[in-house]
From TrEMBL:
Belongs to the TMEM175 family. This is TMEM175 family protein. It holds the Pfam family TMEM175. It comes from the Bacteria. Keywords: Ion channel, Ion transport, Membrane, Potassium, Potassium channel, Potassium transport, Transmembrane, Transmembrane helix, Transport. InterPro entries: TMEM175-like. It comes from Pseudonocardia alaniniphila. It is found in: Membrane. The lineage of its organism: Bacteria, Bacillati, Actinomycetota, Actinomycetes, Pseudonocardiales. It is a multi-pass membrane protein. It catalyses: K(+)(in) = K(+)(out). The keyword Membrane applies. The chain crosses the membrane at residues 12-30, 42-63, 83-100, 112-131, 151-183. Its main location: membrane.
Amino acid sequence: MTRTPSTPHRLHLFSDAVFAVLITVLVLDLRPPAEHSFSALLSLWPTGVSYAVSYLFIAIVWANHHHLMSFAQTSTPRLVWANFAHLFTVSLVPFSTAWVADSRLAASPVSFYAAIFFLVDATYLVLYWEALDRPKLGDPAMRHVVRTRSWVTLALFAAATVVALFAPAVGMALIVFCLLLYIKPEPRLTAPEN
């Protein structure tokens, strides 16, 4: 009896559910100010900044994950475990966001935050390799562009991790800069027709 390879459809649906839960958990950490004034709301700016950056980050990760998974043709064990590793690192974003907000952008929390982003990007690169590079799907030149963008981003997140220890605002700016590199999945990298 031969076994038909399973499609990654269920893996994709499960991942979407995890991203939805993470967005929800992220918003649950938002707390209103004790006072009922706009000035009290303005004093929560570190919470707003960390929430906005994290929300954007999770949205970008989901969009790129969604785009990448459209290339996966079979749900191999390596793809499943690469996906779980990626989701695990993304699941640390709400915790690191809460710490950054609570500390009011202190050095160690921002450095940890950047390190989590580094891990998310590193596991995305592994997932990318399993979904696209290993089976050699898509244009080789575009695969090279995507890989290069990932390596550059990894280097910038690593730099943000170190820089944040001395200048947290600069570390946060590097994080935001990295996010801008991923706002749109590579448009010339098109999924195969099903």
